[in-house]
Amino acid sequence: MEIRPYRPADRHRASAIDSSFLAESVAVLEVGRDSITWSAVPSVARQKSHELAEYLDDPEPPWSEGYVAEVAGRVVGFAALGFEVWNRRAVLWHMYVDRTSRGTGVARALLSVVVSRAREAGSRQVWLETQDSNVPAIAAYERLGFEIVGFDRSFYDNPPEAETAIFMSLDLET
Questions:
Q1: In the structure, what pLDDT confidence band is assigned to residue 161 with cuts at 50, 70 and 90?
Q2: Do residues 65 and 34 lie in contact, with contact meaning Cβ atoms separated by under 8 Å?
Q3: Using the 8-state DSSP alphabet, how is residue 13 labeled?
Q4: CA-CA distance, 107 to 141, in Å (whole number)?
Q5: What is the reported pTM?
Q6: What's the CA dihedral at 34, 110, 62, 131 to 10 degrees?
Q7: With 80 as the cut, is the pLDDT of residue 26 above it?
Q8: Of 78, 102, 107, 140, which is most buried with the most CB atoms under 10 A?
Q9: Cβ(51)–Cβ(18) under 8 Å?
Q10: Which fold has domain 2-125?
């Protein structure tokens, strides 16, 4: 597997990443005094997907660096990183691994590059947002060292079944 910077010429191959997953549960949060924990609770199953092409075609994306994971000439992963100078935060705007390549270390390899770049830039943390319906991502980010630091029930504009945004952070200063 090769991890390298995203180039505009990668757009078509990166857009072909199958980001779909079956959401069969939601993360139910428990807020404690010093932590937020979660557990997966079964829900009505629904197919979820994100269209990477619309993010790649954004004329003014919020991210400044993109990376692809390539295996045998096929793009199997994409990560996009941006920096907030005012609070020394690196933001993982996008992380997608093709459905057929999940569990093979693609996310870990992409995240390793993201964390290295964040450290090089002097960031104190890597921050991200995901949805309560993306239980596999929450679990994967936790395995990779992230912790839940907040949530927002009004973040998405899709009532009446609005999802809850879950914010996670990886501290780079410990």
A1: low
A2: no
A3: H
A4: 9
A5: 0.93
A6: -50
A7: yes
A8: 78
A9: no
A10: Aminopeptidase (3.40.630)
pLDDT (mean) for 39-50: 91
SS (H, E, C) 88-141: CEEEEEEEEECHHHCCCCHHHHHHHHHHHHHHHCCCCEEEEEEECCCHHHHHHH
Mean pLDDT of the chain: 94
Per DSSP bridges, beta strands 125-131 and 74-84 are: unpaired
Best CA proximity match to 156, nearest among 147, 148, 144, 166: 166
Per-residue pLDDT at 51 exceeds 90? no
Residue type, 120: E
Contact in structure between 99 and 19 (CB atoms under 8 Å): yes
Q: How far is CA 45 from CA 25, 70, 96, in A?
A: 7, 31, 21
Q: Tell whether omega for the bond before 160 is within 30 degrees of 0, i.e. cis.
A: yes
List C-alpha distances in Å: 157 to 62, 90, 152.
19, 25, 12
What amino acid is encoded at 18 in this protein? D
Does pLDDT of 156 surpass 90?
Answer: no
Confidence of residue 115 (pLDDT cuts 50, 70, 90): very high
